[in-house]
């Protein structure tokens, strides 16, 4: 059904990050917001994306913000970098979703919400680290990869899942020996994202505990955040609630803290 | 979200947070309608992967429970929770707890019809005395051996000796149970427990799909434990007469045990006897009498006199059946499966050792049964996707083989539907030895196809 060769072929077809994006990320990483804005402006699609993001109600601006320098100023260096990474991941998403009932708007909304909630978590944990903040951007790539690999096998997958409770990630591991998070790591390597980002994403799978406890903790918070968001009506309806296996024991020791932060009642 | 069905129980597995009014999205109208059509004894919602819920979050499922029970007379409830969650549900629904709570799926399965779950020794405790009795009675009716702990200290004391029990039951609550007729399997006989007044409702409460499946997979003796029946009317009589007629097609026998005719006209008994139903006073009159068991058909499932033969219609659909098996194996193993030889014959298995089998029946526009026979090691690799780990646990392998054959059945249903042939599939059954499958299908003509994947051979047999 899905082979290692098919996965390699999928990764092979992912283009390297365009020059404009690489330069923008590099400049933002160095805190050179103005220079980054000049570069970003030359990419019309990126500019349009940045404008659409920052003018969403979630940011609460009364007047339309359209100047890229201003947008980067509002978001800050790390926030801008996170947004550019979200844009890069967005480039991978399909024109038409078949496996999950998503569209460009709902997927982008998931990215935005995850990024904002992750920022809230990191403030709560008193962590200030660009890579850690940006790591959340890679998480939704797992959904895009599932869609890409399984969309041609929807009937087969449904047949298997009607007989056994088995998530997409497990099917992939058992058939091809790699999981969604390994594939995310390969994408991040291809796009020259920091290794730390991929490491946190691997920890967030909930099935690969690391020896580094500080990364494990981040993995737990990210895993729980993902399922908090995937329990929202839009994403349950999209069929995302059980796309990977929720590791309830993995997150049990941070649950109370999480519930209090997110005001779960 | 759809329920996953196994051993007569459909289970929903939501994950994460069930709060607010969000849970309505877990169950669309289509989902509920699809669930109503499932031929199951129970529908449960597992809370194993739910980290948080509130009453609003559970309400959507509870509403579904009520609809399902009203429509299908089945048991409904939650399962797979810890003590804290159990107490929370009890608190939320204090005065309106009319669904069931099963601490584990294994406990729930004791109350459902299954070929597997038989004669379990179960230690049980509930703080509520009436619950202790209700659980014990239900367990007994389903053929298990309940051991009741009357106090918590007695329970804790007995629980230490866990090797004495197959299952330990606590934090479990029986709400309004399904009205399905309780079923148990004893050797090659199926025992149904019926009680109180038997009327037209028996048509709804008797699990006809399970019964047909039992006939298809070779059971030939069906005993109705009728000690607790008060009376029967003509509608029930007609139902049992029809059941006896369909059983006759398989040369199967229906018996009633312990039925009193104090409040039921003797003429009904005579009519039932005319349709082939036999009456006995005590269960042991049958179960302890080997000669009688043999005569009634329970010593060997394969001694049917009137063989149903494979017909032209079935053979004309053969390519679809073979395709379904091949496509499923290919899908599950990522390798090419091939057809080696096809022959119409009695099933021929060259070497009986280290082989296991699974069968599934289908009925509708056409009817019959598919049997897959695998060397155990090949079954393991065919089921690797479902098992996920290296194991020699034969129960686990057989379980996965049942899932595999269920997927084959599903594929057949789809392939036939594409050609406007409508069939339903029965529950799968597994056999730990070749001899046990031969008991069911020996001397039955069918189409035998030798198949292979990665040069590993296995056998496909299609019969009626």
Shape of chain B from CA axes? globular
Terminus-to-terminus distance of chain A: 42 Å
Q: Which CATH C-level class of the largest domain in chain B is it?
A: Alpha Beta
Give the CA-based shape of chain A: globular
The CATH topology name of the largest domain in chain B reads Transcription Regulator spoIIAA
Pair with the biggest interface: A-B, 38 and 39 residues
Structural descriptors:
heterodimer, A: 265 residues, mainly alpha, B: 464 residues, alpha/beta, Transcription Regulator spoIIAA, Chemotaxis protein chec, seven-stranded antiparallel beta sheet, 22 strands
What does this structure look like?
- The complex is a heterodimer of chains A (265) and B (464).
- Chain A is mainly alpha-helical.
- Helix content of chain A is 65%, strand content 0%.
- Chain A is globular and about 55 Å long.
- Chain B has 3 domains: 166 residues, STAS domain (Transcription Regulator spoIIAA), CATH 3.30.750.24; 115 residues, STAS domain (Transcription Regulator spoIIAA, 2-Layer Sandwich); 152 residues, CheC-like (Chemotaxis protein chec, 3-Layer(aba) Sandwich).
- Chain B has 18 helices and 22 strands.
- In chain B, the strands form 5 sheets. In chain B, strands 16, 17, 18, 19, 20, 21 and 22 form a 7-stranded antiparallel β-sheet that branches. In chain B, strands 1-2-4-6-7 form a 5-stranded mixed β-sheet.
- In chain B, a hairpin with a 2-residue loop joins strand 1 and strand 2.
- Chain B is globular and about 65 Å long.
- The two termini of chain B are 35 Å apart.
- At the A-B interface, helix 9, helix 10, helix 13 and helix 14 of A face strand 1, strand 3, strand 5, helix 14 and helix 16 of B.
């Amino acid at each position: 059904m899905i082979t290692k060769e098919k996965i390699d072929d999928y990764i092979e077809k992912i283009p390297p990050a365009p020059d404009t994006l690489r330069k923008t990320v590099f400049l933002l990483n160095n805190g050179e917001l103005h220079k980054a804005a000049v570069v970003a402006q030359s990419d019309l699609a990126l500019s349009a994306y940045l404008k659409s993001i920052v003018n969403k109600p979630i940011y609460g601006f009364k007047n339309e913000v359209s100047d890229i320098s201003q947008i980067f100023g509002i978001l800050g260096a790390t926030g801008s970098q996170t947004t550019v990474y979200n844009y890069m991941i967005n480039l991978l998403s399909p024109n038409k979703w078949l496996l999950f009932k998503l569209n460009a708007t709902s997927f982008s909304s998931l990215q935005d919400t995850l990024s904002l909630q992750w920022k809230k978590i990191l403030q709560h944990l008193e962590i200030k680290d660009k890579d850690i903040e940006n790591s959340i951007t890679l998480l939704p790539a797992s959904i895009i990869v599932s869609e890409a690999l399984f969309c041609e096998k929807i009937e087969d997958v449904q047949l298997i899942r009607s007989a056994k409770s088995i998530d997409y990630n497990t099917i992939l591991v058992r058939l091809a020996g790699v999981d969604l998070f390994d594939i995310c790591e390969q994408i991040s390597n291809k796009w020259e994202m920091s290794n730390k980002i991929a490491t946190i994403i691997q920890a967030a799978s909930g099935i690969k505990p690391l020896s580094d406890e500080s990364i494990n903790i981040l993995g737990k918070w990210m895993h729980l955040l993902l399922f908090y968001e995937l329990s929202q009506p839009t994403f349950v309806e999209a069929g995302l609630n059980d796309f990977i296996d929720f590791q309830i024991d993995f997150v049990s020791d941070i649950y109370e803290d999480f519930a209090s932060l997110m005001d779960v009642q | 979200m759809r329920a996953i069905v196994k051993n007569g129980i459909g289970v929903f597995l939501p994950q994460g947070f069930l709060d607010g009014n969000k849970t309505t999205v877990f169950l669309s109208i289509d989902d509920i309608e699809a669930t109503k059509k499932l031929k199951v004894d129970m529908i449960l919602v597992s809370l194993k992967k739910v980290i948080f819920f509130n009453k609003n979050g559970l309400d959507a499922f509870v509403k579904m429970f009520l609809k399902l029970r009203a429509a299908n007379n089945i048991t409904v409830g939650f399962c797979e929770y810890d003590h804290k969650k159990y107490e929370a549900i009890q608190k939320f629904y204090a005065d309106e707890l009319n669904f069931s709570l099963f601490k584990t799926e294994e406990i729930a399965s004791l109350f459902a019809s299954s070929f597997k779950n038989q004669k379990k020794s179960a230690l049980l405790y509930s703080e509520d005395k009436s619950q202790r009795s209700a659980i014990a009675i239900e367990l007994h009716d389903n053929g298990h051996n309940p051991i009741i702990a009357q106090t918590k200290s007695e329970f804790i004391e007995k629980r230490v000796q866990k090797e004495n029990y197959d299952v330990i039951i606590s934090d479990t609550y029986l709400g309004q149970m399904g009205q399905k007729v309780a079923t148990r399997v004893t050797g090659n006989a199926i025992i149904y427990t019926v009680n109180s007044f038997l009327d037209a409702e028996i048509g709804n409460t008797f699990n006809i799909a399970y019964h047909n499946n039992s006939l298809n997979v070779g059971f030939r003796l069906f005993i109705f434990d009728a000690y607790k029946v008060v009376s029967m009317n003509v509608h029930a009589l007609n139902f049992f007469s029809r059941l006896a007629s369909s059983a006759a097609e398989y040369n199967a026998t229906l018996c009633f045990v312990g039925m009193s005719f104090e409040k039921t006209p003797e003429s009904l008994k005579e009519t039932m006897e005319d349709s082939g139903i036999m009456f006995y006073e005590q269960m042991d009159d049958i179960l302890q009498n080997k000669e009688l068991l043999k005569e009634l058909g329970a010593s060997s499932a394969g001694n049917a006199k009137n063989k149903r033969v494979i017909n032209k219609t079935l053979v004309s659909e053969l390519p679809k059946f073979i395709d379904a098996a091949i496509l499923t194996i290919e899908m599950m193993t990522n390798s090419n499966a091939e057809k080696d030889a096809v022959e119409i014959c009695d099933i021929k298995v060259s070497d009986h050792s280290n082989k296991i089998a699974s069968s599934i029946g289908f009925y509708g526009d056409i009817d019959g049964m598919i049997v897959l026979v695998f060397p155990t090691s090949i079954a393991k690799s065919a089921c690797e996707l479902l098992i996920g780990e290296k194991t020699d646990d034969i129960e686990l392998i057989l379980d996965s083989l049942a899932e595999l054959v269920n997927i084959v059945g599903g594929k057949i249903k789809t392939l036939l539907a594409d050609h406007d042939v409508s069939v339903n599939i029965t529950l799968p059954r597994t056999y730990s030895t070749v001899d046990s499958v031969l008991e069911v299908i020996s001397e039955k003509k069918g189409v035998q196809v030798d198949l292979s994947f990665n040069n590993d051979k296995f056998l496909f047999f299609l019969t009626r």
